[in-house]
Amino acid sequence: MPDLHPSLLLPPIAHRGLHGAGKTENSRSAFEAAIARGYSIELDVQMSSDGEAMVFHDYELSRLTPAKGATRQHSAAELAALPLADGSRIPTLEQVLKQVSGQVGVLVEIKDQDGAMGENIGQLEARVAEIVNAYRGPVAVMSLNPHAIYHMQRLAPAVARGLTTCRFSATDWPMLPRKRAEELALIPDYDACRASFISHHFKSLDHPGPNRIRQTGDPVLCWTIKSEFDEHTARRLADNITFEGYLP
């Protein structure tokens, strides 16, 4: 299985780019700011109605754009026309990787398209695989949905892949069936996915799931650090951090 590139282990990873101060999350300006400071980049991809991988975190548009409704109900062209707060537009994954062009590492989170971390996925993974297979810079993919990483194992075997993980508490994941949440918290799919890392919520780095991965010697990243104090605590158990809201 491919190892995580050193560029995603050594410099801290800017969560959705180095956003804030007039730079919208997951925007080209946020990615340019991260590159300028030498930080690697974490970004999210959602699927458009016509199967494009769009760099956007939310399933719904209203928090970050003037539009309303589900992200995946709009075409790539429609999404690309929507203004973000910093005046830019929603980019595609292909556009962002062209912008980064190997200057820093890129960690691509594939957002769950099933709704319950199940098997009703595939189109977004296929498009992401097509893009990352053609990219020549350091890149890795991850997802909360293990089925997405099963797909990436087959579609992009040379690209490092990992699982985004956490405790999946009922408070934070009210729509996820409890049985499925309890299963995912133990990270049971790691070996079957032939994953080479996890990115775990920093508040539960000492739980059984990440402890088991740590014992294998594989990297444990964490999300999302928002202060120097939390960074100091997290680095006792994590190999690298994903951060926002301050400069590590």
Description:
The protein is α/β, with parallel strands linked by helices and 248 residues long. It has a single domain, classed as TIM Barrel, CATH 3.20.20. 28% of the residues lie in helices and 18% in strands. It has helices at 28-37, 76-80, 93-100, 123-134, 146-155, 178-185, 208-216, 228-234; strands at residues 13-15, 40-47, 53-55, 106-110, 139-143, 160-165, 197-201, 220-225, 240-243. An 8-stranded parallel barrel has the order 1-2-4-5-6-7-8-9, surrounded by 6 helices. Helix 5 links the parallel strand 5 (139-143) and strand 6 (160-165). The longest helix has 12 residues, at 123-134.
- For the termini, the CA-CA separation is 30 Å
Strand content: 15-25%
Compute the number of structural domains: 1
Count of DSSP helices? 8
Mean pLDDT: 97
| Alpha-carbon Rg, integer | 17 Å
Please give a quick description of this structure.
The protein has eight helices and nine strands.
Task: State the main characteristics.
eight-stranded parallel beta barrel, alpha/beta, TIM Barrel, 248 residues
Q: How do the helices and strands line up, and which of them pair or pack?
A:
Elements: E1 13-15, H1 28-37, E2 40-47, E3 53-55, H2 76-80, H3 93-100, E4 106-110, H4 123-134, E5 139-143, H5 146-155, E6 160-165, H6 178-185, E7 197-201, H7 208-216, E8 220-225, H8 228-234, E9 240-243
Parallel strand pairs: 1-2, 1-9, 2-4, 4-5, 5-6, 6-7, 7-8, 8-9
Antiparallel strand pairs: 2-3
Helix pairs in contact: 4-5
